[in-house]
Design a protein that fits this description.
Helices cover 45% and strands 16% of the residues. It is an alpha/beta fold. The chain has one domain: Alpha-Beta Barrel (TIM Barrel), CATH 3.20.20.70. The strands form two sheets. It has a four-stranded parallel β-sheet with strand order 3-2-1-8. Bound molecules: 3-phosphoglyceric acid. 3-phosphoglyceric acid (3PG) binds next to strand 8.
Length: 213
């Protein structure tokens, strides 16, 4: 654990953002803060990602990471522009090696025991479980995590307000990632009030999980 992963643990939710226009970045940041969630993973699924990271990373009230990082150059650029952590859909050894050697927190995607053991070899103890629901959801996560007592997971993919609590109740879940409160169409159409509402709802759910543990 480090300061970044500790903060993610505290938030319990990582909003996964695909933003088309970096001009919307600050309004998105404001909406997340108002909703009580001071962090976002900005994915390289759009061309605006790096500019959005640059804008959001200047704020002191948000923990900004980069997602869908597929290449070392993207990881490098994201960190140079202020991203504090890296997330990737799969476990690319070159990207992970670069991050580990440069002390950059990285949560690569895994969905098999082999992937988990690759992550263990790199000394990682938190990985993304992706795509969570399509791979069998919580039941699969419980089964594949069982041999690896030291590993924690960031399930992402198909998580929403309906299944969030179930995932958070599982002790091996560090936090959950998802786009349900920051959908691209909400950002593009300027519906930041709705983003705040969905974010607040998610934060309140996550608080219940904390209380029930
Ligand atoms: C990701 O990039 O991690 C996922 O696409 C997020 O999954 P979701 O859109 O199903 O929440």
């Amino acid at each position: 654990m480090n300061d970044v992963t500790a903060k993610i643990r505290e938030m319990r939710i990582v909003p996964v953002v695909a933003i088309e226009n970096a001009d919307d970045a600050n309004s998105l940041g404001d909406a997340l803060i108002l909703g009580g969630l001071p962090g976002a993973e900005i994915t390289f699924r759009t061309d605006a990602a790096l500019n959005a990271i640059t804008i959001l990373a200047k704020r002191t009230d948000l923990l900004v990471g980069a997602g869908t990082v597929l290449k070392v150059d993207q990881a490098k650029a994201a960190v140079e522009h202020g991203a504090k952590y890296i997330v990737s859909p799969g476990i690319n050894p070159r990207v992970v090696d670069y991050c580990v050697k440069n002390n950059i927190p990285i949560m690569p995607g895994v969905c098999t025991p082999t992937d988990i053991e690759t992550a263990l070899d790199f000394g990682l103890d938190i990985v993304k479980f992706f795509p969570a629901e399509a791979f069998g959801g919580l039941k699969t996560l419980q089964a594949i995590s069982a041999p690896y007592k030291m590993m924690y997971f960031l399930p992402t993919g198909g998580i929403n307000q309906k299944n969030l609590l179930d995932y958070l109740a599982f002790s091996k879940v560090w936090a959950c990632g998802g786009s349900w409160m920051v959908k691209s169409d909400l950002i593009a159409s300027g519906r930041f009030d709705e983003i705040t509402r969905l974010t607040r709802e998610a934060v309140e759910l996550a608080a219940q999980a904390k209380l029930s543990r």
